[in-house]
Amino acid sequence: MDKPVEVLVIDDEAIVCERLTEFLTGKGLYVEAFTESQKAIARMEKRTFDVVVTDLKMSERTVRHRRAAVHPGNAALHAGNPGHGIRPV
Questions:
Q1: From CA 34, how far away is CA 11, in angstroms rounded?
Q2: Which residues pair with 77 in a beta bridge?
């Protein structure tokens, strides 16, 4: 059996983390979610994720560090308010 895609979700709103986790795990992905930038950064220092989804409003430090957590060629997405859409990085 193939290893599931590993996703890190970082959003300051717990409900967003909960909904994304529920949706993505329902699709067979492995998900870890954090509402605090510093905790997410600490986790990224210990583990590499295939996909990182961050809130546009989260700290710049999280945005800079998330690149180090993603394997080259894999996805990192910024998600924001519905009017802002999702932007790949």
A1: 6
A2: 53, 88
Length of the chain: 89
- Token pair 């979610």 is at which residue? 33
Decide: helix, strand or coil at residue 35: coil
> Which CATH code, of 3.40.50.300, 3.30.540.10, 3.40.50.2300, 3.40.50.620, is assigned to 6-83?
3.40.50.2300
pTM: 0.73
How distant is the alpha carbon of residue 39 from its chain centre? 12
Per residue of the chain (89 residues), what is the pLDDT tens digit? 688 899 999 888 899 999 999 999 999 999 999 998 888 888 888 888 888 888 776 655 555 555 555 555 566 665 655 554 444 44
